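We emphasize that the prediction below concerns an isolated chain of 283 residues; any contacts that depend on oligomerization or on bound cofactors are therefore not represented. The input was used exactly as deposited, without trimming of termini.
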Amino acid sequence: MTTLGILHPGSMGAPVAAQARRSGAEVLWCPAGRSRSSKERAERYGLTPVHALSEMVERADIILSLCPPAAAEDVARSVAACSYAGIYVDGNAVSPATMANISAIVQRSGATAVDGSVIGSPPSDSKSPRLYLSGPAAALRPVALLFEGSSVQARLLSGGSGQASALKLSYSSYQKASRALAAVAYALASDHGVEAELLDIAAGRSTNYLAETAYFPKTAARSWRWGAEMKEAAHALEETGLPSDLADAAAAVMERWASLKDTSPDLTLVLQELHTGPEREFT
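Result of the prediction step, given as a token string:
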């Protein structure tokens, strides 16, 4: 029987770790210093308490870290300090560079680092998030087997450590920013009494902008006009006391495509210009 340690049983960590129990794994957690809500979640999901992190490190074959990204490196250090030598899965929303730091931290204690990312809602009878895994091939399969037949869909990536982290932030940078932008857009419409019309326009769309990669070149070619429009949107937001940061940022992104004005660029060039284009503001 595989033993999994979870750091820590939050609103995502607890239900994800609990799914491993379906494959027969014992799931450990450490109550020391945790909140009452964490303890209630751990009890609800049938997780086994240990007296200290050192006990988890001694007993666990695999440790999964699911914590706020700002704490990810400190959590890794605490595990490494206990001389953990098993498989350490960092499932946090961290950059590939941060993941490299975490790998170096745990490898010094003899552990094998696996880069992981959870995309989707916490698992339940109706929700099946994906757990992407990258890193040393020999370590990925044991982690995936933990969730076989569960509501967590383990998916292995072949590009090495950093792939899972890059995928997570690629998706979340769009998903979470677009949620915030949607709220700001709705607030502006509401301030002017046109929110119903805005929702009617939005309801006419059936696709996701992120999936429309063929439209990126068209966006780039028109950005000389769209950037100026974003500046006007920023002014409109400021006039009603709403944050204009996202609109200003969109204009700055579009300025990187300034050299593509009214051209028919291919996707490769469009992406290249995002890396190397000028960083000037529209006037």
